TrEMBL record:
This is Calcineurin-like phosphoesterase domain-containing protein. GO terms for cellular component: cytoplasm. One of its GO terms (molecular function) is phosphatase activity. It holds the Pfam family Metallophos_2. The lineage of its organism: unclassified sequences, metagenomes, ecological metagenomes. InterPro entries: Ap4A_hydrolase, Calcineurin-like_PHP_lpxH, Metallo-depent_PP-like. CDD domains: MPP_superfamily. Residues 2-159 form the Calcineurin-like phosphoesterase domain. PANTHER family: BLL5683 PROTEIN, METALLOPHOSPHOESTERASE.
Amino acid sequence: MIAIISDIHSNIQALKAVLKEIDGVDEIWSLGDLVGYGPNPNEVIETLKNKLSISLAGNHDKGAIGKIDMSDLTMDAAQAISFTEKELSPENKRYLEELPTLKTNKRFTLAHGAPGKNEWEYILSYESALYNFDQYETAWCFVGHTHIPAVFSKKAPHILVPEEDKAIKLDPT
């Protein structure tokens, strides 16, 4: 079983609770934003570094290492990124620097935001998801960024909102 996590945002307490819930899974994949907003960016990275099979960079991760235009962010996000940038150890900055924003294998596309040209787009509607379906060729695409769990499908009913504390089982084909 694979656990997919995203948008930890330097919240070590929430991360520890999630890790307790998913203890025993075969792999953990992170869709980005390990840092930002919360007060513990180094602790989150140190906790996850060796646990993640796949780790992507989100917009807050890229912002904390000076790789995105801060003028595109809300004031709260810019302040959080500025705080995080000052807090991060040089080693953890290097770790974030090495993370890709997109990963693809034969079956999955993984992205923090949208898998297309606008990588920080929020996919919040079926219409947005449908547009982005054309941006990848794999059977499945997983994205974070929105802080809202949902599964969009080309088949009816098109949107599935998972129940709390329930795993979503996907056909591996």
